Amino acid sequence: MKKKIPYLIIIIGLLVALYPIASNLYSSYWENKMLQEAEALLNFHNPSGDEEDLTQTVAYNFTQMNQSFEEYEAANEGDREIEEAEEEEALSDERTPLVDDGPSDTDYIEQGAVIGKIEIPSIDVNLPLLFGSDPQTLDRGAGQIIGTADPGEIGNTGIAAHRANRDGRFFYRLDELDVGDEIIIKTPQGTFVYTVYDTKIVDPTDLSVLNRNQTDRIVTLITCHPRYTADYRLIVHGKLSEGSSL
Predict the structure, then answer these.
(1) Rounded to whole angstroms, what are the CA distances from 144 to 77, 122, 166?
(2) Which of 13, 32, 203, 222 sits most deeply, having the most CB atoms within 10 A of its CB?
(3) For the purposes of burial, counting CB atoms within 10 Å of the CB of 63, is it exposed (0-12), middle (13-18) or buried (19 or more)?
(4) Tens of pLDDT along 125-165?
């Protein structure tokens, strides 16, 4: 029995080391699957929806997004330690209160469903855009926070995604965006090009980043900051550019 103990320890160690890799592969599989669905969705859509007060809906789903970020970073703590070790080795070698947005095409879409795609050319982002910000949804792509304006509509479209781990997926490079960069969102309603006008770091509970008015068409991208933690939120605001299809 004593001879078997070292083997058990080795097996357990291997399983622990392989978990982050398996988790990322599973997430990547679903991201690609959802991206294929997004491409298909852009060829067909049947919108419907009734007007409702969305203020509480936004607040609830903003909280759900924060829980998703915290769970994700906790589950991938091992990746952070690996990257920090690699970095050390490399060094040794050398606006207004929330208001009702009115009728929404996504009022009755199931959470986790594909509603389009988001592209950010300057940082090589090409992700499926899903409906919701729960953990399962954010493991598979970027998620529109339920209750925020639909892409291209007057208001503030909140889109969240993980910072991801080591391989540059999701919003890993979001901190590289500069004022003037483009954010492209494609849905069955059209292609909407937003121009970045502001970036900032805020506390996780700062719901004011989703403030909107009844004039501007804004998109707000949200992810964790710094990488591998859920301590703060990196926020990128963009405004709809002229020439976008409405």
Answers:
(1) 25, 21, 24
(2) 222
(3) middle
(4) 999 999 999 999 999 999 999 999 999 999 999 999 999 76
Q: Look at residue 30 and give its three-state secondary structure.
A: helix
Residues 6+ apart with CB under 8 A from 137: 68, 111, 112, 130, 131, 143
The answer to whether the CB of 109 falls within 8 A of the CB of 131 is yes
CB 228 within 8 A of CB 77: yes
Beta bridge partners of 144: 131, 159
pTM of the model: 0.71
Nearest to 125 by CA among 71, 175, 64: 175
Answer positive or negative: Cα dihedral of 80, 165, 63, 123: positive
The residues spanned by each domain of the chain are 4-240
Domain spanning 4-240 has what CATH number?
2.40.260.10
